Amino acid sequence: MGKALRFATATILSVAVGIYLNNTSLLAPHRDGKPVLLAHRGIAQRFDERDVKNDTCTAARMLPPTHDYLENTLRSMRAGFEAGADIVELDVHPTTDGEFVVFHDWTVDCRTDGQGVTREQSMAKLKMLDIGYGYTADGGKTFPFRGKGIGMMPTLSEVFAAFPDRQLLINVKSRDANEGEKLAAVLTALPAERRRMIMVYGGDEPIDAIRRLTPDVRTTSRAAIRSCLIRYIGYGWTGLVPASCRNAMVLVPINAAPWLWGWPDRFLNRMADANSAVFVLGPYSGGEFSTGIDTSELFARLPRGYSGGIWTNEIAAIATESKN
């Protein structure tokens, strides 16, 4: 009995040591360099994020503005890059005349002087709207950007033309697989080297279509994120990378990161070897997904020397933090 116990103990210790050596970040090569910064919506007006739902009119709960940039405009994206972003995120919808418009909301009612579902309108009509019309920080007493956003809603092709050598993250706002096929056609028409600088995320159905039709474009969806992280936590100690983590954009809430085998360096290396890009988000607490790394306190929770991706709504502040 004593020999059996000693053998079992030795076996358990050997397995534990093997798992440790296979996953410790201390023995993993460290990728030097600064973090890769992703500016969510470029530079945008911030809003009260408490109890925000998919249909919340965020322009009507804007915080007192500290700048005059409006999200999803060429001016906002350019400012994001100039502030230090490596990648800028933008939102798209198809239009009735075959374009993709860059705009966040499912309808134009909240943010503009128009009405109706965004994807049920022509680009020509959308170009006539004032995208700054609905912004207010005092419950509707004043509208500081009203009249200043006319004609500023761009097409996706205009974004490509304005930033031909910049990395972009495209957010598909629907659950429509047909929309994914339309966007895949747009991406397929781009040179291969340009496609490699673009990532796409959104609803499961359109992302599945894009992943199938443009396999060289890195993608993710809510289902893919969950599958990737849960499966990796489950068996990533073996060194195997789940299929949902491959050729993907891997979003990691900062409070979930310590649960990932080999975090940070070995995990980052495994994802890089799988042609995936990792971006850390703010803490996830259930319900809707987390926000960005937007404060110095959250930035300080990143591992020392971290060189992976950071998703932020405050690109200027986080770019300054990353230089320190």
Characterization of this structure:
The protein is α/β, with parallel strands linked by helices. The protein folds into 2 domains: 44-80 and 90-216, Phosphatidylinositol (PI) phosphodiesterase (TIM Barrel); 220-324, no CATH class. It contains 11 helices and 9 strands. The protein has helices at 2-23, 74-83, 123-126, 156-162, 177-188, 192-195, 204-213, 222-235, 265-273, 296-299, 315-323; strands at 36-39, 87-94, 100-102, 167-172, 198-202, 218-221, 249-253, 277-281, 309-312. Strand 2 and strand 3 (100-102) form a beta hairpin. It is globular, with a radius of gyration of 22 Å. The model has no long low-confidence stretch (mean pLDDT 92). Residues 52-322 form the GP-PDE domain. This is Glycerophosphodiester phosphodiesterase. Pfam families: GDPD. InterPro entries: GP_PDE_dom, PLC-like_Pdiesterase_TIM-brl.
- CATH superfamily of the largest domain, called what? Phosphatidylinositol (PI) phosphodiesterase
Estimated radius of gyration: 22 Å
CATH topology of the largest domain: TIM Barrel
Overall mean confidence score, pLDDT: 92
Question: Main attributes?
Answer:
324 residues; PLC-like_Pdiesterase_TIM-brl; GP_PDE_dom; 2 domains; alpha/beta; Glycerophosphodiester phosphodiesterase; 14% strand; 9-stranded mixed β-sheet
